Amino acid sequence: MISLGVGSCRVDILPVVNGLASGAGKVREAYGGYEAYGASLGIEGLESLRRRAEIDMNDIVVSELDIIYSKKMSEFGDVIVPSPAFCEIVDLCTADGISVIPLDMNDYDYDTAYMECIKATEFTSEHRLAKRGMRKKMPAETPEELAVMWDRHVSSVKGYDRLNRRREEHMAKEIRDTARYRSSLLAVIEVERVEGIVSLLKDGHERERRM
Question: Which end of the chain is more exposed for a tag (fewer CB within 10 A), N or C?
Fold first, then answer.
């Protein structure tokens, strides 16, 4: 857990490993006592998780990169789609009559950012990127380390790196906006995005302090 003050709001960021079954337990342990809860998903993604019992999981499209990621991550435990950590925060909040705040972009904004950040040649190289990732040794001692190593591999393609930075900027802004009217926030975020978001939040705090 990473704790920091954003204005007068206490923000606790819980890094989770996307897809790993044990993530649900981490969320359960952290849950409770916050005025607000957020997750690094868009509004459509959160709604899909809330209604997942009505959705045919066979219809979920999994990319080649996600398949390789799952194979590598399975060394540390079961990997499940949709991600147990995010399912857990949605279920806990739903049971308590709380709406999870979507910290990530909505589908339209994400698609727009994707087209702006990723060139056509980079998109068509995804198969080669996945194959290289399958062969690449990633000597991680923890699932968190592996998630970050995998992210660095994917982000070696500049377009994906630009898109990830855009997501981090958006989520940091959403956390700052939430902090203006909430006293405490638990933000469940995939571990590979946490460092960038925390850095942006700290930079923003430092700028405000100097003003």
Answer: C
Distance CA 23, CA 31 (A): 12
Question: What is the C-alpha to C-alpha distance for residues 85 and 93, in angstroms, rounded to an integer?
Answer: 13
Task: Give residue-wise pLDDT tens across range 182-191.
Answer: 999 999 999 9
Alpha-helical (H) ranges within 54-157 are 64-73, 84-95, 107-117, 120-124, 126-135, 143-154
Separation of alpha carbons 50 and 99, rounded Å = 10
Task: From 148, 140, 163, select the one nearest 16 (Cα to Cα).
Answer: 148
- At 142-162, the pLDDT tens digits run 999 999 999 999 999 999 999
Secondary structure of residue 80 in the 3-state scheme: coil
Q: How far is CA 18 from the centre of its chain?
A: 7
Of 33, 39, 43, 40, the closest CA to residue 10 belongs to: 33
Which range of residues forms the domain containing residue 135?
2-210
Element (H, E) at 4: strand 2-6
Look at the chain and report how many structural domains it folds into: 1
